[in-house]
Amino acid sequence: MKVGLFIPCYVDQFYPSAAIASLELLEKYGVEVDYPMDQTCCGQPMANSGYEHYGKDAGELFMKNFGDFEYIVAPSGSCTLHVKEHLLSHDGTGPKIYELCEFLTDVLQVSEIHASFPHRVGFHSSCHGLRGLHLAKPSEIVGKDFNKPVSLLEKINGLELVKLDRKDECCGFGGTFAVFEEGISVQMGKDRLADHLDKGVEVITAADMSCLMHLEGLLKREKSSVKIMHIAEILNGNPIHS
User: Fold this and answer.
1) Residues 6+ away with beta carbon under 8 Å from 96
2) Are residues 84 and 19 part of one domain?
3) Which of 112, 122, 173, 234 is exposed most, by the fewest CB atoms within 10 A?
4) Domain match, 96 and 191 both
C-alpha cells in the first residue's frame, strides 16, 4: 500500500518530530510512504477566516501534489477535514484523505501497538477531529463510547490514560480565534489544562498539533513540567521530550 503523507505547515515548521514519527509509524506497518517535496499549506487558514478564494492557489498545488494517490494521510484532524470538505471530490472518485489515527484504525485495522510509554497521559479531543471527522462516537450511536485515537493509546504498554471530567471540551485555540478573541481563548485553554493537571498527568497528547501548541504556550507561561506530545510520537515509542 502506498500513501501520500501530507504534513501541515505548522508541524513542518515548529514540530518536525511529529512529522518524522508519523512517517516512521506508517512504515512500521508496512506502508510505502511518499512525501511530495513541493507541498505547502492546504489553504485552511484562509478558508477559516472567510477568505477561501485567497487559498485557491494553495488548493490547486495540493491537488497537483496529491491528486494521484489512492490514500492521503495527515497527522492533523483540522487539515484533514479542510481537504476533505473543500478540495477532494465528493462523488467517490479521486484520493481519500485520512487523519493518521483514523487511517491506522479504519484502513490498516491495527490491532497491536508495539510501543512502551510508562507515563500518565491526558488525551485532548480536538474539535475538528471530534465534531468534523467523528473520530469519537458516543455511546448512544455505537453502544459504548469509542474514540479512535484513545483506542490506540490503550494498546500501549505501560501507558496510564487518565479519565477527564470534561473530555469533549474545546481548548480555545480555534486558529485565528486565538488571535481575535485572545482573552476568551486563553481562559478556555486554562480551563482545559486544569482538567488534565488536576489528574496529575505527565504528558498531554492529541491528534492535532495546533491544539497542543496552544496548550503548550500556556504550560510554559506557568513554568509547568507537564509536556505535550503529538499522538504519533507516543504511538511510535518516542521518549518524552527533554
Assistant:
1) 70, 71, 72, 88
2) yes
3) 112
4) no
pTM: 0.93
Domain range for 158 is 120-235
Q: What is the pLDDT along the chain (242 residues), one digit of tens a residue?
A: 899 999 999 999 999 999 999 999 999 999 999 999 999 999 988 887 788 888 899 999 999 999 999 999 999 999 999 999 999 998 888 999 999 999 999 999 999 999 999 999 999 999 999 899 999 876 444 445 679 999 999 999 999 999 999 888 999 988 778 778 889 999 999 999 999 999 999 999 999 999 999 999 999 999 999 999 999 999 999 999 76
- Residue 112 within a domain: no
CATH of the domain at 137: 3.40.50
Sheet-wide strand order for 32-34? 32-34, 2-5, 71-74, 96-99
